[in-house]
Design brief:
81 residues; 1 helix; OB fold (Dihydrolipoamide Acetyltransferase, E2P); alpha+beta; Interleukin_8-like_sf; single chain; chemokine activity
Length: 81
Amino acid sequence: MKMSRVFLFLGFVLIMALYSDASPLASLTQPEDCCFSFFKGKIPPQNIQEVKKTGSHCSQQGFIVTTPKFSNLCVHEVAIK
């Protein structure tokens, strides 16, 4: 009886360990890293403060640009050249 409780407890710990390892992977697919609509205008280079490439898991590739007016502006590659 004691041995079955030990195995039950170890199985519970194993399940919890597997579940906690899967949680960080979920944070990689945050929608904040992806763009779903894109700015079509031109951005003056002097206004660009930061540029981040969208994640490889995103359906549409692009860049997230930070300007003084906009903190997350999605653009295609040609828009920032």
